[in-house]
Design goal:
Strand order of the largest sheet: 4-5-6-7-8-3-9
Number of helices: 8
Radius of gyration: 23 Å
Mean pLDDT: 91
Low-confidence stretches: none
Distance between the termini: 27 Å
Amino acid sequence: WRVNLAKLHEQYPDKPIVVAEFGYPAIAGIAQGGIGEEAQAQALSAELTDILDAGTFMSGATVWCWADHPWAEDNWLRYLTTSPFGVVSRDRKSKKGYEALKTVLGRRPSLLLRRPDLNDLPALSLPEGYTLRVGVPEDAEGLASCLQKAFPEMTWTPENATNWLLTEPSVKTVFVIEHDTQIVATASARLLPEEFPGSGYIHWVGGDPEHRGKRLGYLASLATLQEFVRLGCQDAVLHTDDPRIPAIKVYLALGFRPDNWHATHPSRWGRLRHVLGERL
């Protein structure tokens, strides 16, 4: 996978890549053998690891498939009438392949960045026509709309915005940037004293793509850093994921640096150097 995906990236360097299907069969309840659960688990683990490690140009992969399902009654594969490619059985019981996928993904926690202090923060200056303020409960719909545009892979509703941001006890301040009365960017100041004692945690930074180029993510994040000073924090941390290159560039510009708390982090940052260059 790694070799061929790298070749594909060379041919199409400006295109993200998604592996549409990868998988391996296993008869539910059969442990050993070429079509047993152990073989499926080993194959899926190796394939997903290779796909994820191919490079930052990878945007995802789809395992074939979630669950065993009916097949036509012919000799496509030894007259089996149920597809054995699922990672759960026809009655939704997990096979070893399901656990293998969870293990691989669990070995790749989000990247952690830390700003080692809150000194010498730059001044916050908004572009003309934009205003910064603290979010209020009435902003739930506007926040959900903005974050849905920023994270289309998720489902943001006013209820989610309320529960995850506006009324979540660990979120101390929600900042919003408005343009023509519409919320076009946001970031939240969160405190997680058990996980990050003494640190401020930047939470859910997002901006409307239609306002790209205005540095709104940078400015909303800077507002949270200034808020952490007011809250008496010593430094600031945040989580992000490897493909979020534009966001990582923003955080590096704000003085954040990689915090390699997990064994996979150094090699993953190493692969990011070709797109981040001297910023790292």
